[in-house]
Write a structure and sequence with these properties.
By secondary structure, the protein is an all-alpha fold. Helix content is 71%, strand content 0%.
């Protein structure tokens, strides 16, 4: 992966994290509450929202269901 591809990947992770944070707040959930509802730790949610961790597909689906969003809504980056 060259530098440009890495920067694009980093941006994508940050954008996904921002979308999740906004959707979580719109549902009135804390990171702890989202973590409990998805079966992960609060630290995992924090890392995903910070763009520092890419969750498994299983976790992505759980997050999307709890936030009542589609996978595209949260995880698709142009």
């Amino acid at each position: 992966m060259d530098r440009r591809e890495k920067n694009d990947a980093d941006f994508g992770s940050i954008e996904v994290g921002r979308k999740i944070r906004v959707a979580r707040k719109m549902k009135g959930l804390s990171q702890v509450e989202l973590a409990e509802k998805t079966g992960v730790t609060r630290q995992t949610i924090g890392l995903v929202e910070a763009g520092r961790y890419n969750p498994s597909l299983r976790v992505c689906v759980k997050i999307a269901r709890v936030l009542e969003k589609t996978l595209d809504d949260l995880f698709w980056v142009e």
